[in-house]
Amino acid sequence: MQLRTLGELRRAVEAGQVPHRPVRTEVRENLIAMLRRGDGIFPGIIGYDETVVPQIVNAILSRHNFILLGLRGQAKTRILRALTSLLDEAIPVVPGCEINDDPLAPICAACRRRVREEGDGLPIAWRHRDQRYVEKLATPDVTIADMVGDIDPVKAARGGLQLSDELTMHFGLLPRANRGIFAINELPDLAGKIQVGLFNILQEGDVQIKGYPVRLPLDVMMVFSANPEDYTARGKIITPLKDRIGSEIRTHYPASRALAQAITAQEAWIERRAEAGALPLEVPQYVREIVEEVAFQARTDAKIDKRSGVSQRLPITCLENVASNAERRALTAAEDVAVARVTDVYAALPSITGKFELEYEGELRGAANVALDLIRGAVGNVFAGHAGGYDLRPIVDWFDMGGTLQASDQTPADDLIDQTAGIQGLHEIARSLCGREGIAPVPRVASAIDFVLEGLYAQKRIARSEDWRYQGAEPPRRAARPEPTLDPSALQVPGGKKKMYN
Prior knowledge:
- The chain is 42% helix and 11% strand.
- It is of the alpha/beta class.
- The chain has two domains: 6-250, P-loop containing nucleotide triphosphate hydrolases (Rossmann fold, 3-Layer(aba) Sandwich), CATH 3.40.50.300; 257-501, no CATH class.
- It has a five-stranded parallel sheet.
């Protein structure tokens, strides 16, 4: 029903054809309807079904303003933006009004005057739910005028009005979010005196501008996000404001590797075949698990600051880099399909080192070396889960008897298979790890071979040396096991990090 005048709207509301209610009641009633239908409340939010989502539902049913409190990369902003799905598809507003006034109950002076003058013939406009969400990133330079509003002397001069007249107001973000949802990200970064300015809207539901006795009873739902680190690092949420926020909801990182993989698969840009010239791309399951395990290892590593957290963006960007390195290798070697390898995770080091903050011990070791340790630990954990039923002793014996192998992250699949043909049992295990019936493509077998070699190295059953200059890292000061040095001439090869297994 597309109503066009105030009179038509009034009759439709009286007949019960169009709902007329405050925004928090609107969100609550729409949520109740979704729960009764069994609809998903926050599509795309994974891992919160039993923890965060029920608490948000309780807050909305209680008609609370609420805050999401959690470390970086825990989908706080995405959840806040998803609240628009709980709003009506569109609501009637007075056309041209800066604060989206309700035609049936206007609160600003200009709209009240229009209603008096035009009556039921007043035209109405419709505002879509997406336009009813206003978001502000809190920064120390935000002023109370930005948030609430100010007196505009230019308006007063042009209209011949007194500065105390409501018509001279320039409204800030908060009044412009009237009849919608107003979100403030990183609330502790907002200056304390600005946080004080939010008291009235949270408790009494009104704002006052520039000290004049003008009361605007806004209809707005307020939601916030904050990082616990901010309480000590940059600012804090003042106690009276915390007291006025109805519910404080804690977010968290994925509880399991499977949930983390689902999030990364949803967010990472891996499907690239739509682009011109792109090769078919495969990322084996064990590579995906290793990428996720790197983040899990980082969140428990003593060298990494736990107060800062390790964002879920780490495995997302890492997986994208892994896929790109596999693409580069396949394009250079003129292969028909790009299959990611464990070696590509090491090549994705630039996507990892910027995603965590280091403690003192980590600073001494260096971000790149810490990341290398994380990858090696992740490979070891994942390999233990995949290779438990295989007899790996013949492969280890081959290296113990003096066998060596040189390879890099850019070694073509055919070359890697040829170089490892003499290692007893390696190819059979690799084909079994491919996990598909029939003859596995050569790049897939090469990836599995690389997984076995890197897994044995991670478990310290074989040794490996590499060109540290290609890693962007310094060699560790002490090695648990002496490793041979390569001939310098063998290191100067285009295409990546040269490694020797022995």
